[in-house]
Amino acid sequence: MTCSITFFGNSVTVIESSIQNTATTSAALASQKQAISTAETEYKTALEANSKSYQKALIDNRATWRADIAQNKATYEAERDRIQKMSASKTKNTLMSAALKRYTTTQKNITTDYKASGPATAVARDLANKKALDAKNAGISMANATYASFIQSLGYGVLAP
Q: pTM of the entire structure?
């Protein structure tokens, strides 16, 4: 009786771990740190720009309010002067009263709009700040994911067929 046995062997490859490949790992870590630093810098720059934009919007809103108030006053004064040239009558008194009511109502509306512009401007600033924060977090996540992917690609010093 005869027997034969055949063995097939697969070659084994050693995959270098991140601990053994310090030069490449250090470069990847430096790249990760740079990407995170860039995300932080861009975030701070965006916050500064948003703050300046917010301040400018408040100043512009105030300038618009002042211009609207002045225009309303000029309109009222012109109408008042026109009415005063009329001869005394009940109609003249009615027109003068109506002009004054329009003037005060318009002044109140202009002021209400101005007061509402502050919170609306703050909401716009807050949304811009949130967008900047989301961009920063996305940049940091991308840097971390890239580094993690690189480390995984090196393996953990295991034998792979």
A: 0.69
